[in-house]
Queue: 2 jobs
Job 1
Amino acid sequence: MTTAQRPTLEAVARRAGVSRATVSRVVNGSTTVAEPIRAAVRRAVTELGYVPNLAARSLVTQRTDSVALVMPEAATRVFSDDQYFPGIIRGAAQELEAAEKQLVLMLAGSPAGHERVERYTTGRHVDGVLFASLHGADPLPGRLARLGIPVVCSGRPLGGTPVPYVDVDHIGGVNRAVQHLLDSGRRRIATIAGPQDMVGGIERLTGYQAAITPAGLPEWVAYGDFTRESGAAATWQLLAAHPDLDAIFAASDLMAHAALRTLRATGRRVPDDVAVIGFDDIETAAYTDPPLSTVRQPIQEIGRRMTRQLLRLAAGESIEPALVLPTELILRDSA
Amino acid sequence: MTTAQRPTLEAVARRAGVSRATVSRVVNGSTTVAEPIRAAVRRAVTELGYVPNLAARSLVTQRTDSVALVMPEAATRVFSDDQYFPGIIRGAAQELEAAEKQLVLMLAGSPAGHERVERYTTGRHVDGVLFASLHGADPLPGRLARLGIPVVCSGRPLGGTPVPYVDVDHIGGVNRAVQHLLDSGRRRIATIAGPQDMVGGIERLTGYQAAITPAGLPEWVAYGDFTRESGAAATWQLLAAHPDLDAIFAASDLMAHAALRTLRATGRRVPDDVAVIGFDDIETAAYTDPPLSTVRQPIQEIGRRMTRQLLRLAAGESIEPALVLPTELILRDSA
DNA sequence: TTGTAGGCGTTATCAA
DNA sequence: TTGATAACGCCTACAA
């Protein structure tokens, strides 16, 4: 389907009886245009339905007015119901909207996807790059940073090159949670840890250890990948090894939810026999049976702050190398 | 931070000792280049780390190689844990990735956001537009279609202009669900309907009516907006009006989940006293108490199919005006 | 305050 | 098969 040519600056200029330059000035809000002319141009713009061609503008301004949000995750995790990625997306979208920039979403779960993202971002097709999460010592953020491309990560990058990031106080939050378990008399406290190639997984385990060890208690650890399935498996594992455990701290609410179910399946009552605390405070947490106590992290705020940092970076400002947001222990009925 | 200039076609051409045109041909895979020259150009590209400037390319090709995905939703709904939007996003992302196109995500919950989306999309900054949902008779899809901009919607558009869409068989799915309730002896069947400015909300209610009416039973309807809160409120309403109801069909799993909780709060047992069926089959559905029976819709597949249709449209092919995917009744323990 | 003119990096049309 | 060369639509010195 061939469509009517869209009007260009030139067309507007002709219609308004001025030069292209003047139209450009009006469109870009320059103050050095006389009011009557400005009005005439505005009218011409409206009549013709003129909209600037971003490609042309980008070509000369060297900006693209778009930002990439990269999610280096296997498909299954990105959009399960754990709300992490959606929360980041939403926070970023809000801030970018305010800044009139576009959000380009890139999934990079597979090696091919990761490579695609690398090509695209290093090719400077965006003004900056946000990483919604990171696995292992992914070299890409560092590489981009060294190329002078603005980057901000969610979670402290494990790679060598320092890259600005926004994270939450995992350790503090988990510490408070486990401390609460100790305070309420629990003494056989296990944990379902998250993936150990991610900072969140690592630090939440550290937080558990930091509370357990000083209390002279043994560490009982099983590993999951934040999903429900892995949480169920880990719970069975813990129960097999330590049938007498009296509390579980799970590094994600999804895993905690699975633990709740599994414990019930084995006839254990929560919190009477076993207390459970999760991490995240997803919406479902208030609706589990019993309602889940958890460590809340402000996911959407992470997305917002990352974006704000990135925009400052892209504007040439220098920014804090790290921003750490607080976590909060939410007590419901499971502990 | 000033960065080393990125290499241009010109630079590669000089390095390889050929003209810009030849480099362009090699980069774009033209077959009319002699092998030795092609090799030399490839080498120069690698050595210089050349990446084409998409803005420049777009300027001359008139394509942007990007597609907008618009979500005209209030922030609260887009990223609750109902997985609808994330599922659409993921399906679209997969297909776009395969087609080497970028996904530009646009939230349009507020009037300002909606207007922003309109400016951007009508400005032809993307090769096509996907609507993840629609409220009322939103004129935007029709307007874009008339401008010759490829558009595909999720859910039949209520506006006047016909726009290609992908949807699921709401009515059939709901019909089967209510029929199942009837078959198991329920006779006082209420429904929590979805928002009546959305096709999904409307048709799921129609499906309920289409099963209830022929059975000579009364329609008991309360309205929600697909969220848990609204589902809880609607359940209270229904119970107040019809304390003796023996089944509830809810137009979303989130609302069904809230119904489950509310029923329990009033001392009713599910499914003994009241049967409950939801719609969506979100991940949580298998984890509610009791596990939720529901009508499954293939959300991710909707996203994929929409995108494929859009790409065909953008390629100049003509496509089916509508694609309707099947739904499936999943029986668990709540009914 | 306004206009002229050059150039941003590609692709595409011709010639050679 | 390769190379000039002209667009593509816009911004921005610089000149008037």
Note: Residues 18-22, 25, 32-34, 37, 56, 58-62 of chain A lie near DNA strand C (CB under 10 Å from a C1').
Job 2
Amino acid sequence: MRATTYLQGLLEKALAARDIPWPEKTTIEPPRDKAHGDLATNVAMVASKQAKTPPRQLAEALRGELLAGGDVAGVEVAGPGFLNVTFAPAFWQRTVLEVLDAGDGYGRLDIGRGTRIQVEFVSANPTGPLHIGHGRGAAVGDSLARVLRAAGFEVETEYYINDAGRQMRILGMSILYRYRELLGEPVTEPEDYYRGDYVKDLARELLDQGGRALLDLPEAEATDVCRLHGEKRILDGIKKDLRDFRVHHDVWFPESTLLAAGAVDRTFAALREKGLAYDKDGAFWFATTNFGDDKDRVLVKSGGELTYFASDIAYHDDKFRRGFDVAVDIWGADHHGYVPRMKACVAALGRDPEASLKVILVQLVNLLKGGEQIAMSTRAGKFETLADVVAEVGADAARFMFLSRKSDSHLDFDLDAVKQKSMDNPVYYVQYAHARVRSLFAKAAERGFSPAPAGPELLARLDTAEDMELLKLLEQYPDTVSAAARTFSPHLVSFYLRDLAGRLHRYYTVNPVLAAGDDALAAARLHLLAAVAAVVKNGLALLGVSAPEKM
RNA sequence: GGGCAAUUAGCUCAGUUGGAUAGAGCGUUGGCCUCCGGAGCCAAAGGCCACAGGUUCGAAUCCUGUAUUGCCCA
């Protein structure tokens, strides 16, 4: 971060002297090949037309000006006109001071300042416990919120509770069915109901609390009692499961409050006024085709029933009325067909859908146990609950696993592998890096060694190839946070951490620290490793994974 | 039938939004424990980036087809 900013400053100045504005297409990035220096830029190529100078010639001219800047040790013009820049060791060594000074704040950015983002995730219908598939959305959403906060966005997380629809009625009905069954009443199995054992438990609770009372109520009322009881208990369970998974929602937003507040009518009226909604065949339609959808969608069926879509529009309308600049929705990938419709609806609400609605699709999880795939269905009562998995493998391992893939790629969640403490499960590898450094400090204290304070002179001892690699990687951490925030990709953090942990483990093998045989060298290396441990800890915090002192 | 996505090493996946000779881990093969934590490290082998065109100084990346897989919709 500091290196790119610094280099860009020098280049901007050089271009400004030639009356050339900073070209949009300029890239400044670490090259793949280390032989090409610390940072490479294409600026001479993209500015050559404006400068009316061939790329290589422009590059040569810029080269001289860069070398005049104190921290640049070398500049090389390569290929069609790349500038390969190498910084002086002292420049990198300062990174240690930067990290140690900032502590927990290293990697905090302000690229999001002034932007309010709402991240809505999980939002599973309270018709049954969360299963492992929900776990992925939970990990991704929670971690994304942490990343965005670190990047300086003002973030609020929310769980939308679909408590008003058909699914909830079916839940009520399912509980009532089990209730009657428990009492030995004559029952016929409903065609469509929730079969999980938890439904029987809920029925038994009602029985224990109120006895046979429900039998005396009219069917509809009894169903309602069952539904409300089930909803409350299941929602409490969901909240607990998320807590145990270290997932936090700032706001729990029930669909029913939206209806009660008249938000749906308000949104409908606004659409009708804009000529975007109309009556046809006894139903109420939303003209989404105006916004690129392939056909118009029904909001109110001819029977008067609202579609899912109707309350979702009102809900998103409400989000924007609450003042969010960006709404992030995290959905299961099976809802991808819904994206164009939602974008259309945001456009109809008078907002730029690309800028203000970001839908992140999270692919389904294949749960594997003993090499076998486990099929899951809430309705059929066949699923592995999130709570069970967390109890079995721990929140750390589960979260890291979910965050170690791009969210829109398929994920095989192999229970046996996640429990293994090996590279199949990199969370231990990363945590171990932290524990290793911390234990080194414990050891130093035990031996009565107190390192001299870090300063440029002391840190000049960090001059091996491994030192440089670690220093450069530390310096890239803020860039990683930035990229993760800008592309809504928390998994970038986990890849970075694996990389950093790998470098640390190698460093440890090659360069003795306490056994360096020289107090100044030992101190310098301790400071470097303290910085590494701090970054590992900050990164793990973004993933919601703990950084243990010892393992 | 229409739509959305995916396709990179034996397996699981990255690839910084178009940069230079393609990157990890696992697995395989071969090394490293008188040494601060071996839950570790080093090395080797392994690639037509699904296929065919196109765009430009330059493509795994963008565009158009084709194939395969997954998922949505009627």
Note: The mean pLDDT of chain A is 89.
